[in-house]
Structures are given as C-alpha cells and as structure tokens.
Amino acid sequence: MSNLPIYEVLAQAFAGEGVDTLFNLMGDGNMHWATAMSKIEGMRVVHARHEHCACLMAMGYHSATGKTGVASVTCGPGVTQITTALATAARAGVPLVVFAGESPINAKFYNQAIDQGPVVHAAGAHYVRAHSTARMLDHVREAFYVARYEHRPVVLGVPYDLQKLPFAGAPDYVPSSSFIPQTGRTPPNPEFVARLVEKIAGAQRPIVVAGRGAVSSGAHAALEELADASGALLATTLPARGMFDRHPFSLGVAGGFASEIARELFAQADLVIAVGASLTYYTVDGGAFFPKAYVAQIDERPRGLKDGMRAADLFVKADAKSGVEAVTRALRERGAATASFRSASLAQRIARTAPDSAEFPVAPGTLDPRKAIAELDRVIPKDWELVSGSGHCSYFQTHMRGRKPEQFHVIREFGAIGNSISIAIGVATARNNGKVVLIEGDGSLIMHIQELETIKRHGLRLLICVLNDGAYGAEVHKLRQDGLDDSGAVFGRTDFGSIARGFGLRGETVADLDRFASLMKDYDAQGTAEIWNIPISDQVTSPGMRRLKAKGHGVM
Ligand SMILES: Cc1ncc(C[n+]2csc(CCOP(=O)(O)OP(=O)(O)O)c2C)c(N)n1
Ligand SMILES: [Mg+2]
pTM of the prediction? Predict the structure, then answer.
C-alpha cells in the first residue's frame, strides 16, 4: 500500500520506463500527472501549443534518440486533436505513448466525455483503458510494451477522478523492457543464402537497396562489402537516405524521388537486393522503377505482398547485417566474376550529373529551388541534423549529400503536411546544440506556425529554411497540369522573416544565393532560432510531378 495519489505513482512509473522528456499540453485530464512529471528529477517537459504538435515533437524526439516518444493531452478534445498524429505514427511504425486523461467515470455529466478508444483505434493506434486502480502500473507497462515491441502509437486513457485516488497496489514498478524478448540477431537459412548467391553470380547489373532496417541493424559496412564483392551499385530508401553518400557507386535514393541517373541505371538492373527495406510503393515507384530486375529481399520480416504489389521473388529472412555478411561469405566461397555494371566512367557520371537537368524559367526575385538547396548543402555543416518537410518541395532537399541517415528525419508515411516544425522541435530538444535545420514548404509551416512560440519560450535553437513558392505547390502543379484554375492554392509569399521576429526570433528573406554563407556565420554567432524565408520559383517542377502528368493523377 502507498498513500500517494495515483497520478504521482503513474508519473513515477513513466520515469521507471526511462522517460526523460515529455511533450505536453495541459487540461483537466492530465494536469495533475503532468505536474507530477515535471517534479521528477531530470525530467524535461516541453509545453506545446497544440496537442497534434506535442505528439509530433515526441515523434521527432524518438527519431533523434531511438527512445519511445512520450506526449500528454487532456481528455475529449485533447484526444480528438491528435488523430492525425496517431495515424502518422501508426503508418510510420513510431513507438509513441500518449498519456491522455479520460473524463471522470463517476461524474453524472461531463461536457468533454467521448468514447476515446474507437477514435484512437480508427487512427490505427492501441488504446489502454486504465480503469483498474489496483492495476494502474500494469496499464502503464502494457502501453510501453506495445509501443516498444510492436513499434506502434499507444494512448493510455486514465479517468481523472481515478488519478486522484490513493494508490492501492504494490508500488514497485517493473518496466516493460524486462518483458521484451531478447533473441539476438536472426541468422539466415543457408539454403536461401545459397539461392541468392547463385542469382548474384549470374547478374550483370545488380543494385543493392538499403532501408531503415539496414540502418538500425548497423549494416552499412557489410552492405558496401557485399556491393564491392559483387560489383553492385548502391542506393537507399528515403528514410535511409545518405547511407552510401561517400561511396563512388552510390545512386542516392531509389523510387519516386530518385535522380535522373539513378532512374536510368535502375531501369537496366537485372537484380535488386533489398536489405531491411519493405519495398514500399514509393521505393519501387509504383512498380515502374526496376521493371527488369529479379528482386531479392533480406529482412527480419519479409513481405510477400506490399502496397498492392509482389514485393520480391526470393526472400532471405534474417537480420540485415547477419544476412548480408552471410551472403558475402558464401559469395566469396563460391567464387564468381563480379558484375560488369561498374566502371570509372560511370563513377564520373554519377559524381558529375545533377539530380535533374530540366530547365525552367525562373522569375526575378525568386530562386531555382535546386540552386538554393545546393547552396544550403554547401553552407550547412555535415554534422547537423536535417529535418525534411513535406509538400512538392521536399523532393529537392532529398538530394543533399554527406549526412548520415541517423541525422535525417522524415516522417511522412501518412502524407500529412504541417508536421515538420514539431518534428524539428523534438529533434532540437534531443540535441540541444543548435545544429538542426528544418527545410519546409510555406504551406506546411504556416499550418502550425504557433509552435514558434514554443521554440521561443523554451529557448530552443534551430534553423528553419522555408522554400516559399507562395502556394500549395503540390496542388498548383497538379491543377495546372490538368488545365484547372490554381488560384485556390495560391496565397502569395508570406513574410516568414517578419513572423519570426514577431515571435521574438530572428528572420530574414534570402533571395540571393551569395548571402547564405554569411547568414550561416551569423546564425552560429548568436543564440536564437532563425527563419530563412527563401522565395523560390513556382515554375520549377519536380520530376515526380512531371511524370504524374504522363500517368494521369490518382492513377496508382
Ligand atoms: C493535413 C493535410 N492537408 C492537406 C494536404 C494536401 N497537400 C499536400 S501537399 C500540400 C501543399 C503543401 O504546401 P507547401 O508546404 O508550401 O509545399 P509545396 O507543395 O508548396 O512545396 C497540400 C495542401 C495534406 N497532404 N495534408
Ligand atoms: Mg509552397
């Protein structure tokens, strides 16, 4: 027995789960618990201005640290506000625990009462209905266990009248980590390794594609060794972007955002070895990206059917690193001539060719986004964290080079705009060193611009570069291609520099490529977050958008 109120015991259980940072927005349903959290030694509480943003901050924090993200909202409207965040986390497989109040179960009337479970389930998240006062700690453990083990968002709903009762259970908390099965790396089945080795031995144009699973398994060096042993080229999925940037035969990202040369070479591939990559619709560009290739997948959890398509022809079920090392070993034992794909001239072409060579008229006073990104890539140090926004312009920053995938933060599986300022706040909270840049579209940034206040109040330091085409560019380009009036998606170029200054931050409009280097020095020299408002042309269209026209919109 303990005489502590349940909200205190719940806060201690969260600390027992190793939580060190909470992203919060208070109301009746969570204010006692959140206040108890803030009193725990070493706990950092970031108070956001919108519940959706608190959740996205926690997801950014996860992206930067690997820890389970933790956010808190009040009951009723606090929960309905976060449905987009939950769906985003569910689609992206982000472990997230949201402490939510529930309306008081003993009240005869409560205006914010709503059946929260179905709302949460509809978004694809797990709901823990914490209604047993004696089993409160089990409820917390279940929430963290499911989030961690199943990589899912979980909402813990605790009626707030129950939170104030004395805790009647045993106070010792056993964290979820001690229940998560530790099984070590999964080794591959040698028979399937041998099948893959035969395919590699017979391939002339193999390409290795690494995904997020390859990053988390630490397979980078093993993958380059396999590619070098077999003569394969290298590429990544979008989330693993940057893994092979220092390799002369790296093609950057595969799929819809690929460079011209990557697209050309993938079209010739006769074997694609996907490692720790689920081969999403985007990575295979709807099935059009490597039409001639035999596809092998090395993965802990191979997918037969993915996004409506056959994922691969051969499956090696294994941890990425163990699987790749076994394949390289078996390939060397077998002995085979390396493929003929690589050459010195190809390496030169890869190094010299711009991602996209199409020409567009660029109006005076605006920049070609490709040139702006190239200059940002030059002036932003390689050890910074890069947070990618959404919208049409997100294609451009994909081609920045030399930053590890662990420093690249993109959570866009649900396709929602408006998230990246919060993801960047989560990353900046984790890093706490000012070395974070968010590159974002104007429409997406303004959707949750109120979080500049959170940045100011918490003294967070990060750089926000707005690729400002004065529009919902994604919509504008599609409407124009279909010959429709685009005026409903055109807003004019918001003055984000003034907005930043209005929030007490620094802000500049930068329409001249030569200014970036000196602005970078200024940023380094001072201690405040800053927005660079970059007017870009609304004519420069990404290759993916141009291909849509050929295909017809909405035709997947
Ligand atoms: C929550 C949400 N609302 C609407 C959309 C539709 N949408 C997709 S991209 C986009 C425009 C984003 O504008 P901006 O951030 O300026 O990027 P741009 O496309 O102009 O580069 C919109 C409205 C969406 N994806 N998510
Ligand atoms: Mg825009």
Answer: 0.97
